[in-house]
Inverse folding.
């Protein structure tokens, strides 16, 4: 992503795969936990700024 000049990633809350901030627990019970999905966590570890769409509103 850095090679393409990307510095920030905007994600939607909820997704356990790429969500940011609050994600569904993954057991299909509707339970929400604080955390980041796999993609958002990877991008943060890679140095990108990751924010949720909801933070922009």
């Amino acid at each position: 992503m850095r090679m393409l000049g990307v510095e920030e990633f905007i994600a939607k809350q909820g997704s356990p795969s790429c969500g940011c901030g609050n994600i569904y627990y993954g057991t299909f019970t509707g339970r929400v936990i604080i955390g980041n999905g796999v993609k958002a966590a990877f991008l943060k570890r890679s140095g990108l700024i990751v924010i949720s769409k909801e933070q922009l509103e």
